[in-house]
Amino acid sequence: MEYPQPVADLIHELKALPAIGPRSAERIALWLLLDKRRNPISLAESLVECEKQIGFCSQCGFFAARDQDCEICLSEKRKDNAICVVEKASDVIALERSGAFKGKYHCLGGVLSPLDGIHPEDLKIESLLTRVDALPEGGEVILAIGVNIEGEATSSYLEDLLKEKQVAVTRLARGLPVGANLEFADQLTLTRAFEGRVS
Fold first, then answer.
1. Count of CB atoms within 10 A of residue 109's CB?
2. Domain 76-171 belongs in CATH node 3.40.50.1100
3. Is-above-0.70 flag for pTM?
4. Domain chopping of the chain, boundaries
């Protein structure tokens, strides 16, 4: 016995979401159909509104109202001498919540991954170089890209491109997270922690 076609279609769409397998997709679909707390119409309307109204900033690539620049790029309170380069728009949210950075951002739209068919021309690297050229003297580019193989390759590639520019290029420090035990840390994390030690 199979589900009616609309339910099967819903399960199929949910399976396409990241970290949702077939069983989870089925459970979510059934919850949306059966639970008294559900509100599938509201969920659908929210998705449609996001699709209609949300786009990406033409300058940095962060979320913005469609065909407009984001609040960060438009803000006169942000520093114009630093650009923090991140992989994707959601990374900006994490950095903004920390309150540690007061400059502007640049979202690459991914990381280099030749095995997945993602090459430099697939990322927003040209627009980054244009923005770097406009930085004032003494400007800084901070590479805040993930510490996996693809992220390291992307950071190294960008470092090579930015060597010729008149800006400082830095990376976020790496090491042990707060509350971590040494016995559970991997070798690379421990090595980075030693390299980044401070007095």
1. 17
2. no
3. yes
4. 76-171
